[in-house]
Automatic annotation (TrEMBL):
GO CC list: cytosol
Protein name as annotated: 2-dehydro-3-deoxygluconokinase
Top-level taxon of origin: Bacteria
GO biological process, one term: D-glucuronate catabolic process
Enzyme class, UniProt record, top EC level: transferase
E.C. designation(s): 2.7.1.45
Keyword Nuclease attached: no
Function: Catalyzes the phosphorylation of 2-keto-3-deoxygluconate (KDG) to produce 2-keto-3-deoxy-6-phosphogluconate (KDPG).
Pathway in which the depicted protein is active: Carbohydrate acid metabolism; 2-dehydro-3-deoxy-D-gluconate degradation; D-glyceraldehyde 3-phosphate and pyruvate from 2-dehydro-3-deoxy-D-gluconate: step 1/2
């Protein structure tokens, strides 16, 4: 069975009405993908590579990940920094607003942790390592350099790197800063999972061909352009295949659509399936997830896609 790891940040989530009752949960793009991957293929037990605070809430957070089948042996505890926090406030009309407290979080200091060497050793032993634009964005500039070096070493040791663009403007000082680091990471990756809406925002792309030309120029031979309700296009060595998705009439929450698609795609890759089937699994899972509220939907709803 393949060893798969996810590098990034998961934060504590508070949701409800401001100065009213708040519910506690958690959320993070890479963690969402890790959970859905393990649901698709139970006992895969993907590694999560991050750092959390040393408080009791962070400890409980890690236990919840373990209940979802996540291998937390490479989750570092940082006594000097706290786990990131975000709040979803819902007004009387149902509109949601987000507030974040993640600056200088434990996860953003992962590369500086005195035990990061053990995380790097885990990375070198993986078959597949997945990370996102957020995984890079939260790091200080000098740690971005260190991360790229870690990825280069992992690639040299045969680790398959998979990158999800997931551009969040608020995490970058300028679009040019994000562009610079994406250009450093993408050439190292065997697969890129790109959301075209993000490309339009970050690069001002107007047509799919604009994104395709840029990504292929960076040396990425296999990548997916995700098109939301239209499905996705898979590109391999200049050839493209459109993989449409089934229309969903009851769309409730698209929060984790991309994360769940990525989990399905990774499940296919880990099992050596044809790329069209990898994308189909991703489309199927995303189509289920968007019919329920929240990033992580009830397990009973994803069990129908379990693979042997």
């Amino acid at each position: 069975m393949k060893k798969v790891g996810f590098l990034g940040e998961c934060m504590i989530e508070l949701s409800g009405q401001a100065f009213g009752k708040m519910n506690q949960s958690y959320g993070g793009d890479t963690l969402n993908s890790a959970i859905y991957l393990n649901r698709l293929q139970p006992n895969l037990n993907p590694y999560y590579l991050t750092s959390v605070g040393s408080d009791s809430l962070s400890e409980k957070l890690v236990r919840l990940w373990e209940e979802e089948g996540i291998n937390t042996s490479s989750v570092l505890v940082d006594a000097q920094h706290s786990t990131g926090l975000y709040q979803i406030s819902v007004d009387q009309c149902g509109e949601r607003t987000f507030s974040y407290w993640r600056q200088n979080s434990a996860a953003s200091n992962l590369m500086k942790h005195p035990d990061f060497r053990t995380v790097a050793e885990t990375i070198d032993q993986l078959d597949i390592l997945y990370l996102s634009g957020i995984s890079i964005a939260i790091l200080p500039e000098e740690d971005k350099v260190a991360l790229v070096s870690t990825l280069q070493e992992a690639k040299q040791k045969g680790v398959t790197l998979v990158f999800d663009s997931n551009y969040r403007a608020r995490l970058w000082e300028t679009p040019e800063q994000a562009q610079h680091w994406y250009k450093q990471v993408l050439p190292l990756c065997s697969y890129a999972l790109i959301t075209f809406d993000d490309e339009m925002l970050l690069w001002c792309d107007e047509e799919l061909d604009d994104a395709v030309s840029r990504i292929t120029a960076l040396g990425v031979d296999k990548f997916v352009l995700k098109l939301g309700s239209e499905g996705c296009v898979f590109y391999e060595h200049g050839n493209k295949t459109l993989i449409p998705t089934k229309p969903i009439d009851n769309v409730v929450d698209t929060t984790s659509a991309g994360d769940s698609f990525n989990a399905g795609f990774l499940c296919g890759i880990a099992n050596g399936l044809p790329y069209t089937e990898c994308c189909q699994i991703g489309n199927q899972l995303a189509g289920i997830v968007i019919q329920y509220p929240g990033a992580i939907i009830p397990k009973s709803q994803t069990d129908k896609l379990i693979r042997d």
